Amino acid sequence: MKRLHVHVAVDDLDRSVAFYANLFAAAPTVLKPDYAKWMLDDPTVNFAISARGGKAGVEHLGIQVEDASELAEVYARLDKADAPVVEEGATTCCYAKSEKSWITDPQGVVWETFLTQGEATTYGTSATIDALTAKTACGCA
Hints:
- By secondary structure, the protein is α+β, with helices and mostly antiparallel strands.
- The protein has one domain: 2,3-Dihydroxybiphenyl 1,2-Dioxygenase, domain 1 (Roll).
- 26% of the residues lie in helices and 43% in strands.
- The protein contains three helices and eight strands.
- The relative contact order is 0.18.
């Protein structure tokens, strides 16, 4: 089963956690000082927020898969899209270890496709998402 992923940058994590916990009628499944995530089944979504100094608003969208065959299927779809695919490979991001690639749609919306392979003790970094969001913010995409 594939799951839609939405990541929103927020200015006030505590206030946003309270808002989304009420909206989803659920506590976050992951809660860190700078990050929260809900793995919801209704609707089926991986919804994450973070307060890490970025511009508030939708940071990126994505498709999370459950296994390597689904990842290969989604990667094949990316190859057919009329945009360059940035293969990040194995990475640590959002307190998780993942295999991922990135693409930007014609409007400059950044999308990731990923398979989570386990938890991580740090948020991690992603030069790829930083570069892609910087390009879209300046209209360079």
